[in-house]
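Batch 3, record 17
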Amino acid sequence: MNMKIKVNTNFSKLKESYLFSEIGKRERAYRAANPEKKIIKLGIGDVTLPLCEAVTTAMHNAVDEMASKATFRGYAPEYGYDFLRVAIASYYKNKLGVSLSADEIYVSDGAKSDVGNIPDIFGDNTVLIPDPVYPVYLDSNTMAGRRIEFLDGNKENGFLPTPDGLKGEGYIIYICSPNNPTGAVYTREGLKEWIDFAVKSGSLIIFDSAYEAYIKGDYPHSIFELEGARSCAIEISSFSKIAGFTGTRCAWTIIPDELESDGKLIGKLWKRRQATKFNGVPYVVQRGAEAALSDTGLAQVMESVKYYTDNAAVLAKLLSDKGIFYTGGTSSPYVWLECRNSMKSWDFFDFLLETANIVGTPGAGFGSNGEGFFRLSSFGSRESTLEAVERLNKLL
Ligand code: PLP
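Prediction for the assembled complex:
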């Protein structure tokens, strides 16, 4: 058939997303040629520990409710059940000292979806995206045909770009802290600089706090801990990395009630968008998410977070001992290191695979400033992390 429809030509501007497929290809080829070698995977960005008991018990109970005519539920509310919105608001209040009203919280099936969908409600603005960073910001704005400028993260600024030198106004600015892939986390002062810039320039910050639970020390977990944020920021967060929900799917976006631009309330636009294109997160999942934020649930999920951060600390210590430059490793499940002898990211990938049988993630896959850097993840087991450290200790 000779179809006459036009396709979205912005898709041809997307870079081929070959990062994880190329990693898999090289790993398989090495495995085939060296079947006796034991490969350790430190490339995964996915959690590996199971859901905690508080969560699975709540989900089992919710499944039972779905099996009875009296307690069955159909479509979930588009913005989330009140019980979960209230539980998230309480988490912010009790853990982060941030007051939110439950109806400023919009529950969704993933931070990836929200990050990717939020451009729907904005017009023709220049978008500022850190480099390196989680690739979804760039790809979703490229699909939407937006003008994109990069914020340089590098060794000099510790992979935490600042607004210094920005002259324009009306930007949409993505900030990810703790950052994937670099693990770098903004201080209160660093994040406040962005808020002040956004307020002054009439810009909007989209703050991705998916790794908030990994923060150790006095860093902001939520942008709303800082003065001025309610007038210029949206926050997107997720149950994926705090509670192991990567396969279960539940997240949230916070839009302050008064946040407004162009005479329009941003929350109202998002409500309209979600009500049209989204039909809510399953009841069973929302009950599980609610349980993750209960006192018992939080104690249990934070045990898993500690397991991962202890792994990260072991990796970070080795790099410190070796005098290798790195970021992350303390407030993040990721350790971001400089490749040895100025190697390129993919050359270092091959070097580690062939000499230490370790698979990591080449930094170049997260933006051009990631070239020459490499991401190791702490989502593996303690045993494999310790073995990897032993191998790296001999090699580096
Ligand atoms: N934001 C960042 C920075 C991430 O690294 C990820 C996943 O790796 C996500 C969002 C996606 O989260 P979710 O599983 O809720 O879609």
